[in-house]
Amino acid sequence: MTELTLPGCRTTPLGGYLAALGLLRAVTRLLDCEATGRWVRQQFVLGSRCGTLDELMGELLTRFEPEAIVSPWNEGAGFVQKSSNRTAAETIEAIRHSTDPRLARLRKAIAAGDCVVALGLERGWGGKGDDLWDKDRKPDVLGLCRNEFPDHALPWLDAAVALGQDDDPAYSRLLGTGGNFGRQDLSATYLARLQSVLTDRRARGWLHSLLSGVESTPYLRDTVGQFDPGRAGGIQSSPWEKADEKGFVNPWAFLLTVEGMLLFASAVVRRHGSEYVRVALPFQVRGSVAGYPTQASGEGVLGELWAPEWSAPARLDEITHLLAEGRAEWNNRPAGSGLDFARAVSTLGVDRGIDAFERHLFVDRLGRSPLAVPLGRIEVRPRRGVQLLASLDTWLGQLRRAELPSHLEDRLRAVEQALFVHARSGEPDLLAEVISAVGRCHEAVARSGAVRRSVRPLLIPGGRALLDELREVAADDLELCIALALATARDQLPQLPLRVLLSPVIVEGGVHERTTHRARQADPRGGRVNWTDRRALAPLSSGLTAALAEATRRRGFPGEVDGMHADLEPAVKGVRIGFQRGVQITTATVHAFVAGKHDDNRVAALLAGLLTADWSGTPDVVLGPVRAWQPDPALDLLLPFTGVGPLTLPGEVLLRPGTEWPAQLLAGRTVEVLTDAARRLRIAGLPHVITPVDTPHEGARLAAVLLLRVPDGDRLDALRRVAVLPRSTSEQNQEFLA
Predict the structure, then answer these.
(1) pLDDT exceeds cutoff 50 at 272
(2) Distance separating alpha carbons of residues 113 and 156, to the nearest angstrom
(3) Bridge partners, residue 722, by sequence
């Protein structure tokens, strides 16, 4: 067996892919029953007894027998001559009277089609006016075709149309509406191309162009169909632009493309039965605009085909089985959309032996014949992080079923686009962009009372795995670092969680549910998140800084948050604003936040998305850069008060912010807060503390700092920059011995 690489048979456009499959099918049935095919660098490699390209071409030109492609259920197929299908009728008539032995099977199929038309009209199934068939009797006509057709004509019938529940015709997107694309009937076009191949002296050149990719023979000027949009004609296809809308057709390519489509027939046949609802091919799914940024205005998405590639030689029967029984599963169910398919590919939810998929989207532009647009290739390999957001599907499904205003539809599309881009690469930074898109969408839902009635708040499980995936990029992503620190902040018992403050939600059914006059709160463990009828207490829509400052003020209300450490009194009475658990960030990160060296909108979007995750059980890791620190007196005075636990100075000292600090900082009275901080440090046993001066930092940002968790080591370092710390006993002994 010799393998021939065929540069003209490529994975794109879709016509090239199908022509490659059709070539293997034709070679197997006519020349070599052991022929094989595989894909190498997106080119088809044919294995057969033909040792050279010239030998293969000679065999095909001499021995090619067309398939039985006839569609008597379509008016344009030419079985009854009318003014609209005169050419098709003349072509069928010529084949009826042909004596070419290569057309024997086709003549039998045409005779069966003639019988179907005669019997159907005799039984009164004809339509009114110019219609060949009554639309209500189309299932009867299709059933009659199945009874009258010879066996070799059934693959075309099975590929083009199937009868679903209640005998309603169901169509494969691959073949349009029963082998019909607008005014183009594929069976009539197939017969016309066959006539060209059999009679035109350019036939050998066309076949050579198809196989070698060297297009030196002029093509026919006619309708191309959906499979090769680059040759469809129209604007910029010739000097005459719109006046020249004919495409550039290689008749051999069309014949083999149609033959390749027959391999999908068995997939349709196996779904006949009581549970059959619609044509369901393993690699054909509902259309999705995700991953299609070039969608034109007014362009409708009709469906998708994900064409598999394999690198190991496979015979025709093996490929037929793959196309009939191929598996593409996402989240323990068959992939139903292009987005599902991309994630199935990235989580090894497809059959072994498939190396990659080429995605083709069927679109309808301006109501004309559809086009199969190639949208790129995705290799089959596991991609990190894709499975982590599988739980989003339920929530996104609720959104798709709801009546959404236009701005929310845009947000939903943005989430799907981000999910698709992440599924293609699996990079953690793109996972962060998914979370950002989810955050924007969730915030938009939270502000729409009508949508909230049909869409529940989102709760994503598995926060620990999500944190592990995001940690490596958070070190170089200031916004993500800040958002993680805020989103993961929590108390061991419910103490006015940040999500309840920033979003109009309550957590019901938790083990520590309680109600106050301000908000209904609960421990998220075991609870259900629901919308509340109140406005968010500190809505992110007011701006990140304002929302965080207001959240600080709310947590600073006396008695709102338990003080903890009952066995240790604070040096000066105050309130606990900070959280017990959560990601900690370095002083350098806090300073960048206070200085406004980040994108507030991106932090808000990331925070809104991250707040929907369950962070229980996540470790208190430290994120952010560790670098030389330039003293900042205002920030250094506040940092010691951000923690929950005591500091060792060398004795344990518990520092608490003043009750009025949040309100004072919001009012711009920063110096008063800093002065009180210095006073509290002196009372705590640090007599030598700097005298505060005014700071350029925004008071609201300084208030938000009190929500952040900073490592105790950084708190002590900040304290050393604004005060003289007493020496420990060991340090005094070492100095005495020296």
Answers:
(1) no
(2) 13
(3) none
Cα angle for residues 30, 35, 36 (degrees, 5° grid): 140
Between CA 620 and CA 615 the distance in angstroms is: 11
181-185, 219-223, 479-483: which has the highest mean pLDDT? 479-483
Q: What is the mean pLDDT of residues 581-607?
A: 95
In DSSP terms, 185 is beta-bridged to 180
Q: How far apart are CA 489 and CA 486, in angstroms?
A: 5
Q: Express as a percent the part of the chain with pLDDT over 90.
A: 67
In a domain, 674, yes or no: no
Take residue 150 and report the two structure tokens written for it: 């010879």
Report yes or no on 577 lying in a domain: no
Residue 177 lies in a domain: yes
Range from 239-253, 259-273, 563-577 carrying the lowest mean pLDDT: 259-273
pTM above 0.85, yes or no: yes
Q: Which long-range contacts link 237-245 to residues 24+ away (Cβ below 8 Å)? A: none
Which residue, 592, 596, 552, 607, is CA-closest to 576? 552
Nearest alpha-carbon partner for 7 in 32, 52, 40: 40
Report d(CA 276, CA 163) in Å as an integer: 9
3-state SS, one letter per residue, for 672-700: HHHHHHHHHHHHCCCCCECCCCCCCCCHH
Judging by beta carbons within 10 Å of its beta carbon (0-12, 13-18, 19+), is residue 377 exposed, middle or buried? Answer: middle
Q: How many domains does the chain fold into?
A: 1
Closest CA to 95 of 81, 84, 106: 106
Mean pLDDT across the chain: 87
Torsion sign, CA atoms 290, 293, 297, 300: negative
| Residue 355 CB contacts under 8 Å (≥ 6 apart), including other chains | 39, 309, 310, 311, 379, 380
Is pLDDT above 70 for 178?
Answer: yes
Sequence-distant (6+) residues with CB within 8 A of 152 are 67, 68, 105, 108, 109
Tokens of 391: 């739980």
CA 281 – CA 285 distance, rounded (Å):
8
For residue 49, tell me if it sits in a domain: no
Q: Convert 513-550 to b/e letters by CB count within 10 Å (16 or more is b).
A: beeeeebbbbbbeebebebbeeebbbbbeeebbbbbbb
Range 175-178, long-range pairs (CB < 8 A, 24+ positions): 175/261, 176/226, 176/370, 178/71, 178/73, 178/74
List the one residue out of 37, 3, 34 whose CA is nearest residue 256.
37
More confident residue, 484 or 75: 484
**Pairwise CA distance, residues 605 & 584, whole Å:** 20
Q: Given a cut of 90, is residue 481 above it in pLDDT?
A: yes
Residues 6+ apart with CB under 8 A from 223: 184, 189, 246, 247, 249, 369
Mean pLDDT across 495-511: 79
Res 82: pLDDT: 77
* Average confidence (pLDDT) over 308-322: 96
Name the helix (H) or strand (E) containing 185: strand 184-185
Q: Closest Cα to residue 613, out of 642, 585, 582, 589? A: 582
* Average pLDDT for 193-213: 95
Distance of CA 721 to the CA centre of its chain: 49
Q: Give the range among 24-28, 79-83, 200-204, 416-420 with minimum mean pLDDT.
A: 79-83
Q: Is the pLDDT of residue 171 over 90?
A: no
* Residue 493 CB neighbour total at 10 angstroms: 12
Half-sphere exposure of 476 toward its Cβ, with a 13 Å CA cutoff? Answer: 4
* 514, containing H or E segment: strand 514-515
Whether the Cβ atoms of residue 108 and residue 68 lie closer than 8 Å to each other: yes
Asked if omega into 13 is within 30° of 0 (cis), the reply is: yes
- For residue 300, is pLDDT > 90? no
Query: 158 lies in which domain range?
Result: 75-263
- C-alpha distances in Å from residue 366, one per residue of 154, 177, 237, 300: 34, 18, 18, 8
Question: Which one, of 524, 520, 549, 550, lies nearest residue 532 by Cα?
Answer: 520
